[in-house]
Write a structure and sequence with these properties.
It contains six helices and six strands; from the N terminus they run E-E-E-H-E-H-E-H-H-H-E-H. It is of the alpha/beta class. A six-stranded mixed beta sheet has the order 3-2-1-4-5-6. Strand 4, helix 2 and strand 5 form a beta-alpha-beta unit. It is globular.
Amino acid sequence: MQAEKIILGIDPGTTIMGFGIISIKGGKMELISIHELMLSKYPNHETKLKYIFERTLSLIDEFHPDEVALEAPFFGKNVQSMLKLGRAQGVAMAASLYRGIPITEYSPKKIKMAITGNGNASKEQVAAMLKSLLSLKEFPTKYLDASDGLAAAVCHHFNSGNLVSDKKFSGWDAFLKQNPDRMK
């Protein structure tokens, strides 16, 4: 009998962090939870990072995922936004690695391609396909950041066993070996 696998997907953000958790058992995918962490109410970037770290740890402690899938920041024109988004992703990564959960990072295009077959699909198209894939009557949230987190988890399931990212880390040692420039 095949064991259950739980995947936590995270779309890190500095205004809204979206997450989705799925269970895979016997090849059947089922939604466990989808939600978002609203960060705009916090007074500064440092406080937001603290809450991202704490919420990621609490999700791991509550749902005991076997793996974490993260949406990688996309390259935009605003360097300050990129830095803040990268920090948010780094904090979510650190929380996962702190609990010993392997993480895999996926580009937004790879996630959209895995879910819809179109790397340029809109967030609404991704959400609609997730609703269909998971046989949901209604989508449980109005925030597309939450569906982006769920999409990362589903993308990871679809690509399990296939190396679709060169950014797969099983712990701090693996992360540091693949990122020697970050030890400075």
